[in-house]
Write a structure and sequence with these properties.
The structure holds 2 protein chains of 2 kinds. By secondary structure, chain A is an alpha/beta fold. Chain A is built from 19 helices and 11 strands. In chain A, helix 11 crosses helix 17. Chain B is 87% helix and 0% strand. The radius of gyration of chain B is 30 Å and the shape is elongated. The chains are: A alpha/beta, B mainly alpha. At the A-B interface, helix 7, helix 11, helix 13 and helix 17 of A face helix 2 and helix 5 of B.
Chain lengths: 427, 235
């Protein structure tokens, strides 16, 4: 029997392991982490299959669905997506069997556990290239697979991250915090450090699987962000690939805290272990990109600005005791001042925003209070910054939006000595 | 007559000398035990400091928010508080052991009681410490959740939760110490019941409008949100 090695065999169930052993080895592995995605999953699986048959007909491929205990029959839909129908309909044919395996990694969803199961499967199947597809990527096209996989498959890059055409107000946490801060810290202009659709080489997947952060709650919640940051720290060859339109997902205010944990929590946590790297990096370099780096759509979008303003002011007033432990006196004083401004003249300046974020990052590292509470305390301030970004770019064309994001990025880069000063001072 | 007085005085002086001769070695033993106790307590202090540093005890308590609580109370770091406490108790134990050697009438019984009381004191202090930490943590969690859910009066909610936990913790501490158990239990029942009744009255009668606004905000807005979903997508 073939001897296989995984970083941690115990995370794979016996049944899943048996199915993987039956598959043997593959060239391409498509990972599909799901949880109650019955509404969207069938067309996504069909598109993945079509993409594999069209662009990789000669390669051995497997689709691995890691499900977090769906109650709506998502795994069944994945398994029942019949490839024969697709072959008849689209007149494409595969020279090899396309395997589809579904496994339930837990009874409740955790992104990190889903990714870990897929990585372990990829290592076991000795996949040359792996691609993760989000079950929410309803606008997926067949060419997404080749756009993401080809650079890895050709051994040119270790990690391919996506860029999209998005609405100018979509992903404000990315444009106002994650992208500029990652860029300022690590010196790489990665537009989507938190990627839900991305591809990587087998060795890079194994390297990430072997790291010891899987028991850490923050790392498990923000595993995608961790993957990107660890790849940067490991000097992996990274590129970006433009995938096309990403649909604007409407969300509720309760989605912000999990989003902060998945992204900002992971970014702040990475500062300690990667201190030597980010403290030495200066300026920033563009990352090789296939296609445009970013496109913005500009259609009108209704946003409740009054609510954003109200939640910012209430947050500053009510959380004063919390902010006193996190922020410097001057920053807190400035926040108090802008919280009193009328809606018409309200503005959360980039310089103050950068100072706030760096002080939060150091407080998080120092754990002045519970780290999760620090992230939660950032939510009302983010709403204030989001409102400013919204007002500044309300009538602006795509160039103005891009210029404003660029200006913010430069502000983050300029503010880096302040972060270092705080870091070393409080250390 | 004169001789009698001299005899009595001489006997008294002898008595005192004998007493002093009896007492002096015990006093010396007390001093020696006290000194040995200080050395042992100091060694314990050093060992405890090393162990707590090794366990990153301060870091653990920082994560739980305990350091903030201690600094607010004007106390040094948690490690230092624990070390000083252990040192004090260990040394005091030795001193009391030395005092018992003096053989002072009734003192031994009191010392015995003190030693029996010591474990309860430890437990009570532990309950108080953990309770204050829990009060600080949960009140902050409630405050943050209320702010991020846009609920009215978040700070009031945080204070209410902190007060309830502290009252509960104090009742447990007094019960553990055996200080007026029944009175404390009764007082806790009255205070807790009164607090709940007060809140119910304040919210239901005094704050009818606030209650209505709160419920409307909580449930009606949620329905509106379902329909409108006008929040910006952060990712």
């Amino acid at each position: 029997m073939k001897k296989v090695r995984t970083a941690d065999d115990s995370i794979l169930t016996d049944e899943f392991l048996r199915q993987l052993i039956n598959v043997g080895e593959v060239d391409i592995l498509v990972g599909l982490p799901t949880h109650n995605n019955a509404k969207t999953i069938a067309p996504i699986v069909a598109t993945i299959q079509a993409g594999l048959l069209t662009y990789f007909p000669r390669d051995r491929a497997a689709i691995i669905n890691a499900d977090g205990g769906s109650q709506d029959g998502t795994p069944e839909l994945v398994l029942n997506a019949a490839i024969d129908d697709l072959r008849r309909r689209s007149n494409v044919s595969a020279l090899r069997t396309l395997h589809v395996i579904s496994t339930q990694y837990a009874s409740s969803p955790t992104r990190g556990d889903a990714l870990r199961s897929i990585l372990a499967a990829g290592e076991l199947l000795r996949a040359k290239a792996c691609v993760i597809v989000s079950p929410e990527s309803t606008q997926i096209k067949t060419d997404w697979l080749t756009k993401l996989l080809r650079p890895v498959y050709a051994s040119e890059f270790d990690l391919v991250l996506p860029t999209y055409s998005r609405h100018k107000f979509d992903g404000i946490l990315l444009t106002n915090l994650l992208y500029p801060m990652t860029r300022a810290l690590y010196g790489l202009r990665i537009r989507e450090p938190y990627a839900l659709d991305f591809a990587f080489s087998g060795p890079l997947g194994s390297q990430f699987l072997a790291q010891n952060a899987w028991q850490d709650e923050t790392a498990r919640a923000g595993s995608e962000t961790y993957f990107t940051l660890n790849s940067i720290a490991g000097h992996a060859r990274i590129c970006q690939s433009f995938l096309g339109t990403r649909e604007h997902v409407e969300r509720r205010s309760s989605d912000l805290i999990p989003a902060l944990r998945q992204t900002v929590g992971a970014l702040f946590s990475s500062l300690g272990p990667h201190m030597t790297l980010w403290s030495a990096a200066t300026g920033s370099q563009p990352v090789p990109t296939i296609g445009p780096e970013r496109e913005f759509t500009l259609e009108p979008l209704r946003v409740n600005r009054k609510r954003l303003r109200e939640m910012f002011s209430t947050g500053v007033a009510e959380l004063e005791s919390v902010f006193q432990t996190i922020l410097s006196t001057s920053t807190l004083e400035e926040l108090r001042r802008i919280a009193r401004l009328e809606e018409g003249v309200f503005r959360y300046p980039a310089e103050l925003w950068v100072k706030t974020i760096y002080e939060f990052a150091v407080a998080y590292h120092k754990a002045v209070i519970s780290r999760d509470h620090i992230l939660q305390a950032l939510a009302p301030l983010f709403r204030g910054r989001a409102l400013t970004f919204l007002v500044e770019n309300r009538n602006g064309p795509a160039e103005t939006v891009e210029n404003n994001i660029e200006a913010l990025c430069l502000e983050f880069e300029r503010g880096k000595p302040y972060l270092l000063e705080l870091w070393n001072g409080r250390e | 007559m004169r001789e009698m007085i001299v005899d009595e005085l001489t006997q008294a002086m002898h008595g005192i000398s004998r007493g002093f001769a009896h007492f002096l070695p015990r006093l010396i033993v007390l001093v020696i035990i006290g000194f040995v106790g200080w050395v042992v307590a100091y060694a314990l202090k050093l060992a405890l400091r090393s162990i707590l540093r090794l366990l990153k005890f301060d870091k653990l308590l920082e994560n739980a928010g305990a350091s903030q609580l201690l600094s607010k109370a004007g106390l040094p770091s948690a490690t230092e508080v624990l070390i000083q406490f252990a040192f004090g108790v260990a040394w005091l134990g030795f001193i009391l052991l030395g005092v018992s050697v003096l053989g002072v009438f009734g003192l031994q019984e009191q010392i015995g009681r003190f030693f029996l009381f010591l474990p309860r004191l430890f437990v009570a202090l532990f309950i108080l410490f953990v309770g204050l930490l829990a009060a600080s943590f949960f009140s902050r969690a409630a405050l943050l959740a209320a702010v991020n859910s846009n609920l009215p009066s978040p700070r009031l909610l945080g204070i209410a939760i902190r007060s309830i936990i502290i009252v509960f913790v104090l009742s447990m501490v007094f019960e553990e110490l055996g200080v007026a158990d029944e009175t404390m239990l009764l007082a806790f029942g009255i205070a807790f019941g009164g607090l709940m009744l007060g809140l119910a009255l304040a919210f239901g009668i005094g704050g009818q409008d606030l209650a209505r606004q709160f419920l409307e905000k909580r449930f009606v807005r949620e329905k509106e949100d379902e329909g409108r979903k006008d929040e910006l997508s952060p990712l």
